[in-house]
From TrEMBL:
Domain FAD dependent oxidoreductase per the UniProt entry, residue ranges: 4-343
Lineage, opening ranks: Eukaryota, Fungi, Dikarya, Ascomycota, Pezizomycotina
Swiss-Prot/TrEMBL cofactor(s): FAD
Protein name: FAD dependent oxidoreductase
UniProt family annotation: Belongs to the MSOX/MTOX family.
Annotated keywords: FAD, Flavoprotein, Oxidoreductase
InterPro entries, per the entry: FAD-dep_OxRdtase, FAD/NAD-bd_sf, MTOX
Molecular function (Gene Ontology), one example: sarcosine oxidase activity
Amino acid sequence: MVFDVIVVGAGVWGAASVEAYEKAGRSVIWIDDNDDEHPTAASADIARIIRAEYSDPAYRKLAEESLQSFKTQEPYSKYFHQTGWFLIQDEQQARHGSIPSGTEDVAVEEFRRKFSAANVDDNLFITRTENVGWVEANNLQQALNAEIRVKKRRGTVTDLIFDGRFCRGVRLGTEDILGEAVVLATGWRTNRLLASHNLAQVDYQVVGVPVLGIQLTDEQYMKYRDMPILCQPGRGEILPPTAQRIMRVNNPRSFHLNSSSAAPTSLSPTHICFKENWDFLGKYFPDLVDRPAVISKICWDALTDSQSFCILQVEGTNNVYYVGGGSFHSWKFRPVLPELIAARLGLKGDDNSEELWVLLTQEQSKKHADLIPTRRWE
């Protein structure tokens, strides 16, 4: 059988691509080397922040549309928790940062009353925004996948099969899967697959951020489960604990990975790359620094210059496409991704998204300056 499209990858972008093609009535085969979402995909996680707070107008418009779906549309609303967040910034960040200040000013003294053990400087600007929350990412991904009629074929794509510029399909071990088009939703690994055919590389760099998941006791969970998210740009983010009693601690200071280097994922929580995570946790929750870390990983993604979505035809091919987030923000846009993919890949005839697309991908519009790597992974 020759499928209309072969979708490779089972993260957020792979699932959204399958959803877009399925809705357009195309025959799809969906391939990933894992039974469920890829555990090392940038989108695989216990929890992700959902917000529309961006200084970039185009990004904010799309994020607001997506946030509304998280609030009101099943299955998104089932796994979304609107907790609000505290945004903690210095004066420079408050005036010129990539995250707009919140809607409600909060005095440092008031913040200290809520987080009595926190070590907060008097000169910080603290605002609160209610229109922010977090999503049970892996649980929602499983629920969305269950609604897709196409079921994944487990296997590792080892090669692309070309006849001149036309890609006839993909190779799974000794088996060839044939299709009229191939969509690579393979994140930062994409260029490694393209390199074997001397194809032009997609313009991104491989970037990783350290993430910890702290195991709380039942008592600690009850104490912190309804807390707002804490976000201090350039320092980190702390999310409320999940039902599994795990509190996620992010560090936005990223590492750059050479294209030929191995990308470590799970590491010991005592590895030096997590020191800033532990320090950040200790600044706001000193009572939790002795708790064990059950998640300690580097989350790798493909970072584009514009830090926005990447939906394009691979140069030198007639029918190979790459789709990806361009940053770590894809989960915030999951509800609108299928429509965006459909518009960009010609699956709908009334595409009027070109103006929005130009605004989304303009290079001078950095979405999250903190993610630009200043250190290399050695």
